[in-house]
Write a structure and sequence with these properties.
- This protein is an alpha+beta fold and 382 residues long.
- The chain folds into 3 domains: 22-67 and 154-243, Gyrase A, domain 2 (2-Layer Sandwich); 69-150, Aminomethyltransferase beta-barrel domains (Alpha-Beta Plaits, 2-Layer Sandwich), CATH 3.30.70; 292-375, Beta Barrel (Elongation Factor Tu (Ef-tu), domain 3).
- The chain is 21% helix and 31% strand.
- It has helices at residues 22-27, 48-57, 77-84, 132-143, 164-172, 174-177, 217-228, 240-245, 280-289, 378-381; strands spanning 32-36, 39-44, 59-63, 69-73, 97-99, 102-103, 109-111, 114-119, 122-126, 148-150, 155-160, 184-189, 192-197, 206-211, 233-235, 293-300, 313-317, 320-331, 336-344, 353-358, 361-368.
- A hairpin with a 2-residue loop joins β12 (184-189) and β13.
- α5 (164-172) crosses α7.
- The longest helix has 12 residues, at 132-143.
- The radius of gyration is 21 Å and the shape is globular.
- It starts with 21 loop residues before the first helix and ends with a helix.
- 46% of the residues are buried.
Length: 382
């Protein structure tokens, strides 16, 4: 099973970008951070099981300012945004959000952001950890389209958990609290400019509040915490356990630019070949030929995992290494270890027996259907 990580001193040097909520996270008791999109992200406040159950039972606040925005504006904004993603944006209304992978010419995944359409000619790609802005600037140099690209002063917070709707209602009223899943609203909170979306990284009821002026960081944090006090709100870090249960992938360790959407379980549906985008021909070819490998869910035996993986673990079948484990955690509600692994497509069907090679030796595993919990997404849609 995963071992305790090596102890080391964490320096918050001046070249590490801090979020507008940094001081509030320190005051809330954050004990560790990681680097993500060249910024610091909180990774733990309390015991991870304590944080997990609070997310499932109450409401939580996350500093996710590391979700940097790639903003596309200008007369040709829709045409340019469409070049980047395999989603058909002719089907995306103003105020709608979409999970919108950015595709490379060879069909690889450059990033897997959530896209927000804020206007006819204004799009945000809310980015996972990568240099997708640089990729977009490269596309702009040769696209010949009238657009402006920038990283705006936008810093998201996530409000997640079954009582999140009550907190959003207290802050913004019924209109925002009743947003449909994957839709957004623009406005302000007594002069604090924000966008609020009905999205999140949990598979629970949840919202994201995109602060549009970092100078209000402390004030916005305090307003959310005060509104959430009657509902037992607490600050936590993004929950790896809950996102794996929900079948949510983490760009960089589960997949990267060497992988294409047809290799990722559940991502195939996002390839809409009715649209014209960079990499379309490559994905058409891959769709026709099929893929050799697949990222799948796995259930893993052994003692409960209590820490994240520090390296990819080999996956074996009949004594031969056939793939690697990319993410794994202990599901406290399912009472078993779950995760994702790359395997040959012939071994991808649920129920295939495998063996994971941990630092302490072989551990039995079996492929599993995704998501592990709530396969029809009734919870976040509720």
């Amino acid at each position: 099973m995963p071992r305790e990580p090596f102890s080391f001193t964490f320096y918050t040097a001046s070249w590490y970008r801090r979020s507008p909520y940094w001081q509030r996270t320190v005051e809330a008791g954050c004990t560790s951070w990681d680097l993500y999109n060249h910024m610091l992200i909180p990774t733990l406040y309390d015991d991870d099981e304590t944080e997990y159950w609070h997310l499932l039972r109450h409401v939580t606040l996350w500093d996710v300012a590391v979700e940097r925005q790639l903003e596309v504006t200008g007369p040709d904004a829709q045409r340019f945004a469409q070049l980047l993603t395999c989603r058909d944006l002719s089907r995306c209304a103003v105020g709608q959000c979409k999970y919108a992978p950015i595709i490379a010419p060879n069909g690889g995944i450059v990033n897997d952001p959530v896209l927000l359409r804020l206007g006819e000619n204004q799009f945000w790609f809310s980015l996972a950890d990568s240099d997708a802005l640089l990729y977009a600037l490269g596309v702009q140099a040769f696209a010949g389209l009238d657009v402006e690209l920038r990283e705006p002063d936008v810093s998201p917070l996530q409000v997640q958990g079954p009582k999140s709707r009550e907190v959003i209602r207290a802050l913004f009223g019924e209109e925002v609290a009743s947003l449909r899943y994957y839709w957004c609203w623009q406005g302000d909170l007594d002069g604090i400019p924000v966008v609020v979306s009905r999205t999140g990284w949990t598979g629970e009821v949840g919202y994201e509040i995109y602060l549009r002026d970092g100078s209000f960081g402390g004030e916005l944090w305090d307003r959310v915490m005060e509104a959430g006090r009657p509902f037992e709100i607490r600050a936590i870090a993004p929950s790896d356990q809950r996102r794996i249960e929900a079948g949510i992938f983490n760009y960089g360790n589960d997949m990267d630019v060497t992988n294409n959407p047809f290799e990722i379980t559940g991502m195939e549906r996002l390839v809409e070949l009715s649209a014209d985008f960079i990499g379309k021909r490559a994905l058409e070819r891959i769709a026709a030929e099929g893929v050799r490998n697949k990222l799948v869910g796995v259930k893993i035996g052994g003692e409960p995992f209590r820490m994240w993986l520090e390296d990819f673990w080999p996956v074996r079948r009949d004594g031969e290494v056939v793939g690697r484990l990319t993410s794994a955690s202990h599901s406290f509600r399912l009472r078993e270890n779950i995760g994702y692994a790359w395997v040959p497509v012939g071994l991808a069907a649920p129920g295939t027996a495998l063996e994971v090679i941990s630092p302490d030796g072989p551990v039995p595993a079996v492929t599993a259907a995704l998501p592990f919990v709530d396969p029809t997404k009734e919870l976040p849609r509720s």
